[in-house]
Amino acid sequence: MGRKLKQLKLKNIQITDKLFGEYVRKVSEKIIPHQWKILSDKLEGADPTYCIHNFRIAAGEVKGERKGVVFQDTDLYKWLESVAYCLDGGQGKVYEDLADEMIGLIGKAQEEDGYLNTYYTVNAPEEKWSNLVEGHELYTSGHMIEAAVAYYEATGKDKLLNIARKNADLICRVFGEKEGQIHGYPGHQEIELALVKLYRVTGEQEYLNTALYFIRERGKEPNYFLEEIKKRSGFQFFPEFDDYDLEYSQAHKPPVDQETADGHAVRAMYMCAAMADLAEELGDEELLEACRKIWNNLTEARMYITGGIGSSGFRERFTTDYDLPNSTNYSETCASIGLMMFGQRMASAAGDAGYYDVVERALYNTVLAGINIEGDRYFYVNPLSVVPEFCTRHTYMQHVKPVRQKWFSVACCPPNVARTLASLGQYIYAQDEDAVYIHQFISSKASAHMAAGAINIEMDSELLQTGCVTLKIQASGRGKIRIRIPGYAKDWKCRKDQEVLEQQVSRGYLTVELEPGSSLIELDFGVKPMWMAAANQVREDAGKTALVKGPLVYCLEEADNGNLLSQIYVEENTEVTEGKPIEELPGDVPSLIYPGMRIKNKETGNCLYSPLETEKEPVMLKAVPYCMWNNRGEGEMLVWQKVKA
Amino acid sequence: MGRKLKQLKLKNIQITDKLFGEYVRKVSEKIIPHQWKILSDKLEGADPTYCIHNFRIAAGEVKGERKGVVFQDTDLYKWLESVAYCLDGGQGKVYEDLADEMIGLIGKAQEEDGYLNTYYTVNAPEEKWSNLVEGHELYTSGHMIEAAVAYYEATGKDKLLNIARKNADLICRVFGEKEGQIHGYPGHQEIELALVKLYRVTGEQEYLNTALYFIRERGKEPNYFLEEIKKRSGFQFFPEFDDYDLEYSQAHKPPVDQETADGHAVRAMYMCAAMADLAEELGDEELLEACRKIWNNLTEARMYITGGIGSSGFRERFTTDYDLPNSTNYSETCASIGLMMFGQRMASAAGDAGYYDVVERALYNTVLAGINIEGDRYFYVNPLSVVPEFCTRHTYMQHVKPVRQKWFSVACCPPNVARTLASLGQYIYAQDEDAVYIHQFISSKASAHMAAGAINIEMDSELLQTGCVTLKIQASGRGKIRIRIPGYAKDWKCRKDQEVLEQQVSRGYLTVELEPGSSLIELDFGVKPMWMAAANQVREDAGKTALVKGPLVYCLEEADNGNLLSQIYVEENTEVTEGKPIEELPGDVPSLIYPGMRIKNKETGNCLYSPLETEKEPVMLKAVPYCMWNNRGEGEMLVWQKVKA
Q: Is residue A600 helix, strand or coil?
């Protein structure tokens, strides 16, 4: 019982990676100041968000109308969380005063009893907790609590933590199975994992209990949401949810009975992350088994090769097994971040590094694709095939943007990418009493304290180039290093101080015993470009192949290969050459070069349909990492290429 | 100026066709009684439509609340129109009394000044004409007028025609450019083509003027719709239209300046049909040229090979050039009926039979697919590739049904199919002073009167089998027959009384001079199965081929070929054999048999993604006409098959 693995403190990790270092730096340099301007309505040309303004009204500092979406407060909370991680990592010191000022403002906006939500406090004080389906009160509190925990851990300051506790205490009083309590649960999950975090930093058992209550109560009969909707006689914020589908918010049956990844993908992932947390903290095998079922369904039938999830552009949600359209899908950046959170917790709860294969897939592909290399534009939606002129507004393609956007009216993704990058270290390193765990191969320096003493690690990763990783280790005692061996490393080798290690891999980990002093671990994961295929039931990818190398999925871009990419064919077993990295792209990651052909139909004037008569033309193709697409202007992009039959 | 071609009277046409005869019979046998039950809320298990009930309230016969969609009245009007065509064709006599009774009811529901709309009369009398964007008042009147004209022509009874005139006279007073008139136009076009029909039967010039006014006023600056929405401060019936896109209703610029087929496909087609009518009646070259531009864009870049139109499942609309997704598209049955209407009018206005190639494509494929062979189930949406388990509700596939449905809450398609089939003769025959025109090759008997005397035609069409058509003609004078030579008939032959005719085809017509007495015309269109390809810009169809024979597009069904149809490849130039007609399907139409292969990926347990390793297997394939798919149970269907590269 209790937590098995703990992440290393961010202050003890320094990211030095050629690729990720670039992106992480953008968080404090670009994203945080940019997002601040947006929150405070100081960005020229951008629509006002009213975010800070709303807090000032709720705090009684100014008079006016509270505006923006019902969960607009979360923008500030996510900003604070990102600032906290930056501070923890030794960056963004310049924002600390501003953060403290905002925390003061949040405190003033909090009501006497701990209630905190500018929409309901200002606009609808009589309607608190009456619209759990849409109102996002618990979701908003969750993000506030996450920010509070992060800020406390980064700075040691407890003002926001106390605000969070007071709010969480209220939630624990209001919700529960006792008489007089509301027997409900959030429309958008988030509070659950936040309460677990708050429990971990405060030790307050009630937070864990209430998190568990929300998971256990969810989806029971008679259904709370349906009763609530009936009582309210309709939808207030989102009229399009008329004819509500309980699967959308995973409320169609209790989470422990769910066997497939259903509904809104971000909600599903936040819920599953909390379930895995609770399974670990409580040693609850039933919860863990439920998580495993959903995880298996998700990764065996409903996930893109890029780690994107949510096949439906309409309602940002899962559909059904093997339904993985490449151009109309949603694959929200936030959903893949949720997938990373879920996988990280599953690895810890189940004690298996294999889950990090999926975390890595999501991180290196969809999550990184969510932001441009300058750090000031974002994708919300991440298709695997884009034809820019087909991305038309007011149509079925309305959600797909062919170029990254400056911001969004519902701006969950940019700050979510920011907080993920700013806290990247948590996905690289973890520890228990005896060992430090290495889950990702991202160049960095880290230090930790184990029972046997201190340990310093310097990881130099060439994973994306040669597939080799070296670990320079200084240990003051006899600890262990457990290194995840990725699923794609079929032919890996490891040497310690020049000597080949022949250990077995157990639950995805190679365990290396350390003696006091310095040691050098050299890993070669035998990473080569590979042509991948999807399961036969994935109709969309039948007769197609995707090129991967290690964790990276590659794609073809118009910039390198011209347009009409759907005409391109490759032969099975085509040999791939590693080309020079593209100059404009960061991280020194090679492009991949290979021969293929274009097959087109003979042109016949303006005829849309004419007798089949094809022409073949050999071509040389150049693929680049999917995560870096659309950093060189607008153009077509394609992951799944046709295989010459 | 004035009309060039007139359709033959339905009473002078008798459809004897093996295929269409089956469907046409269903209209009076099944559709009309079935639809009547629905309109009168007598169908067990079906949700009430309130259609007749609403008229009884408006007529003052009963008290109660007027319910259903705002344009619910049109269900009765379309039913009446279908009844009228059946009566005209000598069928459905048993419904005439009921129709007369309904016409009486409609008369009682009409207000003193001619206004006729149960929603506004009962629920919102103060709001008449205030919501042209959504209110469908003019649309509803249009369908009433069409029914009135049809009923008058079929029966000679003028009660409904007089109701229609009174309503049309009101519309002509209310709308127009004069001071005090509303300078607006309908949100959903339909009144325009109805007013032209009413003009043709009454000779009242004002109807033509008002139809022209609606077309000419549409899309002018300042935009009437935007002003109206501002005044109403929002959307009343369709809140999802917030952030209104003027293109949706073709109101973004004047129709004469539009160069592409945009927005809601049915609205676009009804508008274009009226434009073509007006172009012909007024000899207006500007209107005709605008029609030509839209037609060319539509047929050269935005139409499926099945004659389906409207690529976007969201909002039932056009998207952009070459964006033709095969599984998520809308391709509403009604839109293809609209395309038939537009094409028919263009052929007449431009004097070119070529337009009927598209009419035929739409009729034989998408329109016929809209109804099952029993005549009691319907498709609203017509994709070209279906995997039943992927058609999930509450997702991006919500609109796609893998099996035909009994009815729809917005039930435009079933009665639209009914009135099209019941008036099928109008698409087969037309005439002018000198000639009878043959536009479709559907077995039938027809008679007409030309300047030179009477003519009787007996058409025996084997178009779908041997590609041969014979015409037995009895003429009392020296008229002409103009026969459309279809675009697919590259190698046609014609003999008249055993003698080969060598005439040139002009504007798509072969002209045959007739002497008094009997003659036998034998046509052989050289129809063979053909492998077709789409233009290279159609990304969705790259590397794929569709099998057609004459006007019919063929498809693969799971019933004949197993599932996972996306694994199927055919070689270029694969020889196709004509197989036996499928026993369960009507019309004695051959199936098509050919060799192909299945290429699948090697199975690797539960892995969603694994290294590419394919296996090939030769298969024999059987294709059936697309219009008849899903008449043998639920299963996969595929039009565009992969070509072995």
A: strand
Mean per-residue pLDDT, B299-313: 98
Averaged pLDDT score across all residues of chain A: 96
Residues B32-38 have a mean pLDDT of 92
Interface contact A543-B569, CB threshold 8 A: yes
Q: The whole model's pTM is what?
A: 0.96
Residue A502 designated active-site: no
Rounded Cα–Cα distance for residues B540 and A130 (Å): 47
Average pLDDT over residues A301-316: 97
Strand duo B641-643 + B568-570: pairing: parallel
* Residue A45 pLDDT: 81
Residue B316 known to be catalytic: yes
Could you read off the pLDDT of B599-622 as tens digits, one per residue? 999 988 889 999 999 999 999 999
Q: Is the complex ipTM more than 0.85?
A: yes
Phi (first) and psi of residue A635, to 5 degrees: 180, 175
Asked if A509 and A485 count as a contact pair (C-beta separation under 8 A), the reply is yes
Instruction: Verify whether the Cβ–Cβ distance A532 to B610 is below 8 Å.
Output: yes
A155-174 mean pLDDT: 98
- Looking at CA atoms only, how far is residue A386 from chain B in angstroms? 10
- Three-state DSSP string of B436-476: EEECCCCCEEEEEEECCEEEEEEEEEECCCCCEEEEEEEEC
Distance from CA of B254 to the nearest CA of A (A): 20
Alpha-carbon torsion, ordered B479, B482, B483, B486, to 10 deg: 180
- pLDDT tens-place string over residues A440-484: 999 999 999 998 899 999 999 999 999 999 999 999 999 999 999
On chain B, the residues whose CB falls within 8 A of the CB of A317 are 394-395
What are the chain A neighbours of B606 within 8 Å (beta carbons)? Answer: 296, 300
Indicate the SS3 state at residue B258.
coil
* Pairwise CB contact (< 8 Å): A569 & B645: yes
Which residue of chain A is at minimal alpha-carbon distance from B330? A396
Query: For an interface test with B, which of A394, A399, A531, A564 has the most B Cβ atoms less than 10 Å from its Cβ?
Result: A394
pLDDT, position B242: 77
Distance, in Å, from the CA atom of B538 to the CA atom of B535, rounded to the nearest integer, reads: 6
Phi first, then psi: give them for residue A496, nearest 5 degrees: -115, 125
User: CB burial class (10 A; 0-12, 13-18, 19+) of residue B563?
Assistant: middle
Determine, for residues A532 and B611 on separate chains, whether the beta-carbon distance falls below 8 Å. yes
H/E segment holding residue A168: helix A159-174
